[in-house]
Amino acid sequence: MGTFDGYLLVSDMDGTLLNSKGKLSEENKNAIEYFVDNGGEFTLATGRMLPSIRRHIQKMKVTLPVIMYNGTKVYDFNNDKVIWEKFLEEDRKEIIKVVKEVSPNVGIEIYSDEVVYIYQSCKRTERFNKLGYDVIYDIDDSIWNKKWTKALIVGEKEELDFVETYLRENYGDKDIVRSSDVYLEIIPKGISKGQALKELVIYKGLEEFKIISVGDNMNDVELLEEAHYGFCIANGSEELKKKSKYIAPSNDDNPIEFIVKWIGQLKEDLI
């Protein structure tokens, strides 16, 4: 039996697994490899889209399907197939019209079938220019007939603070996710990384596994709640730290390496 048999480790990517430069450290990479080689299961839970994840996933040992779009899709990269997926409800698509009206300076992006449609542009929507993704800037009314994975509102912190408050007051709390200071996401009702993790556990028959998760922001709160041991990193949001029983080092100080060592110690203490 391997040291980590029966353990599942799930990590957020941006601001957690990846350092401040958006890179995977050798220490975290080696820790994942050690964990997997000794019986553990490892996967990611991220807000990213498929091509964005694919750029990184080849550098690490991911053994299970990945939770994408903050829980809207679960994708098996090893077999290139969708395991589970939800789409934004038709009536909730209208929210972006409201956002455009109340905040004309933010960017609004629609994600559908791994293509990004720019509904309203701003400086931050220009970030795709260097990345080579499928991005369409000139959109027409056919966008309303497509299945949307999510809508993403991008802008400066103060702008998004205003939009977030406005939408929470008018459209409820759970289904509008602040994934960073500059990103506000509209996702399907009842969807979260934690809900997607439940689906993944059932799909893979991992109900008996001990789950360890780690994140840095409020889009990770359900992911941490769904785990037996949920970690927030030291430089994560204060709000998430308040809800977390366990704290890992910052994303620049190899939190995955720390957690893998912590799991090893936990197992020793349980013997």
Report on the architecture of this protein:
This protein has 271 residues and is of the alpha/beta class. It has 2 domains: 7-86 and 192-270, HAD superfamily/HAD-like (Rossmann fold, 3-Layer(aba) Sandwich), CATH 3.40.50; 90-186, Hypothetical Protein, Haloacid Dehalogenase-like Hydrolase, Chain: A, domain 2. The chain has 9 helices and 14 strands. The strands form 3 sheets. The protein has a 6-stranded mixed β-sheet with strand order 8-7-6-9-11-10, covered by helices on one side. Helix 2 (26-37) packs parallel to helix 9. The radius of gyration is 18 Å and the shape is globular. The two termini are 14 Å apart. 39% of the residues are buried. The mean pLDDT is 93. This is HAD family phosphatase. It holds the Pfam family Hydrolase_3.
Which keywords apply here?
single chain; 271 residues; alpha/beta; Rossmann fold; Hypothetical Protein, Haloacid Dehalogenase-like Hydrolase, Chain: A, domain 2; 2 domains; 6-stranded mixed sheet; 5-stranded parallel sheet; HAD-like_sf; Cof; HAD-SF_hydro_IIB
Question: How does the SSE layout of this entry go?
Answer:
Elements: E1 7-11, H1 13-17, H2 26-37, E2 41-44, H3 50-57, E3 66-68, E4 73-76, E5 81-85, H4 95-102, E6 107-112, E7 115-120, E8 135-136, E9 150-154, H5 157-171, E10 176-180, E11 183-186, H6 193-204, E12 210-215, H7 221-226, E13 229-233, H8 238-243, E14 246-248, H9 255-270
Parallel strand pairs: 1-2, 1-12, 7-8, 12-13, 13-14
Antiparallel strand pairs: 3-4, 4-5, 6-7, 6-9, 9-11, 10-11
